[in-house]
Amino acid sequence: MQFIRVLVPVFAILMALPGQAAVVGNLYDEQLIVESQSRDALRQGAAKALERVFVRVSGRRQVRDNPVVAAALAEPEPYMTQFRYQRSKNIDGLDELVLKLSFSPRQVNSSLQSAGLPIWSANRPAVLVWLIADTTEGRQFVGADAPPAVLSALEAEAQRRGVFIQMPLFDLADSTNLSADQLWQMSVNDVREASARYSTPFVLMGRLSQFSSGQWVGSWAILQGDESSRLESDGLDEVAVLSAPIDYLADMQAATYSVSAGAGNSANTMIHVAGISDFSGYASLITYLEGLAVVQHANTVWLDKDQLIIELVLKDDMEKVKRFLSLDGRLLESAADANMPLPRPVRGYYQWAGNRL
């Protein structure tokens, strides 16, 4: 039995170098253990894998009740682009047959739109994870000294929901900035200060305890800017106790960054962008804007030296565009220049900072 209890409402794995946003890979790929290579086993496995992809791409925990999704799960083969089998050994040394599948992003996205479900693009906020585990070996940082099973479970849960997690570097600066005792005491201020060097939009801090019965309990805090939320979880194994905070994070992020077809008023929006020094910068800007889930097209309507006016054809409203732009700092809001009138009215002024990712 697993439970989650929210104590304070929230507002609002990969070892990686510091950063604000990341591109989550393999959103449309999945793998699972199957009993055989029979056609029935392939069909059942493909249906289960496709459901996981729908969950990860939509940002919704429950999708199978939707009739469009249910129809896709009943006939998953047309969505498959490739599949293969691989023999491997599990942690107990036993042979397993792993089915690896890839699904068509176009068909998955089209079905989600037809189902009226949102699409959460691969450009997602990074989450810095400070986690300490209290086991028979003592209290240790996960990702540094703690047994690898906890980190593996954390990575698996993050992959299940498409949450980009970033572990600390655990270098001299980290050991100076945050001790195991400070994290165990769930000191939000200490963790916030230790996390400043990473500049991630979200921080997940937590402590795990394992009882002699094997039961796990966890206490968590999620930090976003100056806001924080707390929750607790428990479970019979590492995966069960970690699923609660990962689901909570994914639900919160998807609510902010996923895009539903027809969600906005579909009116075009003009923005002014400065800092475009050459064609390469221009091409990078247009590619970046059209790569945002909320932008359907980015069309240049005026150009003068290093600045231009771009017409954005949106799938949602401009406020959601601003949320995406805040993730990576590549297109920064700036002030209007009163001495330079523009030929078109614009909704915002921006400075292109280049390819920071």
The tally of beta strands, per DSSP, is 17
Please write the CATH class name of the largest domain.
Alpha Beta
Strand content: 25-35%
Low-confidence stretches: 1-19
The CATH superfamily title of the largest domain? Ribosome hibernation promotion factor-like
CATH topology of the largest domain: Double Stranded RNA Binding Domain
User: From the helix content, strand content and strand pairing, which structural class follows?
Assistant: alpha+beta
State the order of secondary-structure elements, H for helix, E for strand: EEEEHHEEHEEHEHHHEEEHEHEEHEE
> How is the biggest beta sheet arranged?
9 strands, mixed
Number of helices: 10
Pfam families: DUF2066
Protein name: DUF2066 domain-containing protein
Keywords: Signal
Salient structural properties:
single chain, 357 residues, alpha+beta, Alpha-Beta Plaits, 3 domains, 5-stranded mixed beta sheet, 10 helices, 17 strands, 32% helix, 32% strand, disordered N terminus, DUF2066 domain-containing protein, signal, DUF2066
Briefly say what this structure is.
It contains ten helices and 17 strands. By secondary structure, it is α+β, with helices and mostly antiparallel strands. Strands 1, 2, 3, 7, 8, 9, 10, 11 and 12 form a nine-stranded mixed sheet that branches. Strands 14-15-13-17-16 form a five-stranded mixed sheet, covered by helices on one side.
